[in-house]
Amino acid sequence: MAVAASSRSSKAKIVIAQLPWSAAKPAPVVLVSGVESFLADRAISSIREQLRAVDPSLEVSDLDAAAYSPGQLLTLASPSLFGEPRLIRVSNVEKCNDDFLTEALEYVASADADTTLVLHHGGGVRGKKLLDTIRGGTGEGVEKSDTEAVKWYRKAAEQGNANAQGQLGVCYERGQGVETNQTEALECYRKAAEQGHVLSMLTLALGYKTGDHGLAKDDSESAKWFQRAAESGDASARFVIGGLYATGSGVKQDDAAALKWFSLAADQGYAAAQFSVGLCYYNGKGVAKDIKTALVYLILAAASDQASAKTLLAESTGSNSRVQDVVKQLREKRTELSVESQKEFVKSAMKDWSINTSR
Length: 359
Description:
- By secondary structure, the chain is of the alpha/beta class.
- Among the domains are: 2-144, P-loop containing nucleotide triphosphate hydrolases (Rossmann fold, 3-Layer(aba) Sandwich), CATH 3.40.50.300; 269-359, no CATH class.
- The chain has 16 helices and 6 strands.
- Strands 2-1-3-6-5-4 form a 6-stranded mixed beta sheet, sandwiched between helices.
- Strand 5, helix 3 (98-109) and strand 6 form a beta-alpha-beta unit.
- Helix 5 (146-158) packs across helix 6 (162-174) and helix 7 (182-194) packs across helix 8.
- The radius of gyration is 26 Å and the shape is flat.
C-alpha cells in the first residue's frame, strides 16, 4: 500500500493516511509497502509526476537504505539555496542498515515541509520500528488489496505491458485478488513470454518440462523457451540450456553448444555453470582438454561453496594445500571482484604451479 502523511507542518506530528496504490500523493513522508514492485513503481512515479507538475525544478535524489552512510538523508533534505522542492526516493528499506534506521526515525519526527520522502519497503520485519512509527498516526485509510492490484495489472496488461501480463498470470495461478484460473494464467504467461518477459518464459519452459500449468510434457517446447530466456540473458536459463545440449534433451546433442551456454552463465557468476565449464575442460568435452583452465573454473565454483566443484578439486588435487589456500582467499575477496577479475586472480596465483591431478 501507499501510505502518505496528511499534514504539511514541519514540526507537528505526522498524521498518516493509508491509501490504495492508485491514490498515492505527495506528502512529507510517503511509505510504499508491499512486494508488488510493478505497483510500487507506479505509485512512486505518480508522486514524482504530481510534484513536477507543480514545480518543474523539482530535485530528485535516490538513496539505498541497505548501503546508507550517516548524514546522507539530512544532507539531501536540507533547505536548497534556491528553494526548489525535493523528492528523496529510498529503496531497500526492508534491508536498511542501523544508520539509516536511526536517522530516518529522527527525520520522520520532524519532516521538512518542502521535501517529499518516499520510502519503499518490500516486506519483512526489518525496519518494522520505522514502519510502525509512520503508521502510528490517526489518519484512516484503505488497506492494500489484491483485488486493487489485479485491477491495475489488468489495465496495464491490456495496454501490452509484459511485466503486468506476467504478474496477472501469477494472480490467476495463485488466486490472489481473483478466482484461480489456470487457463487464464497460462494465457497471460504466453502473452508476456512472447514479449520477452523472462519469468514467464521460464514458467512455460518448466511447465513443458514437468507437465505443470495444464501443459503436456514436451521436451522440445521446454528447450525452446529455455533457449529464448537464455538469449535474453538469464543466467539460470543459460545454465539449463547448456545442460540440455550436453544431454540432447529437446535439442540435438552438442558439446560445443553446451560449453558456450555454460560459459555465458559462468561469466555471470553462476556457480553451477562454473563447475560445468571446469568439467568440460577437465574431460575435454566440447573443447580440447585443459587442466589449468579447468582448475580456474573449479576454484571459482568452489569459492562459492559449489559442492561438486569442491569434491572434484579434493579428488583431483589431493592434499594440495595451495589449491585450498586460493579457494579460501578467493572466497574472502569474490564479492569485491568481477568474475573476470576473479579469474585473473586465480590465474595469477597458479602461474608457477606444476599441475598434477589424480584423474
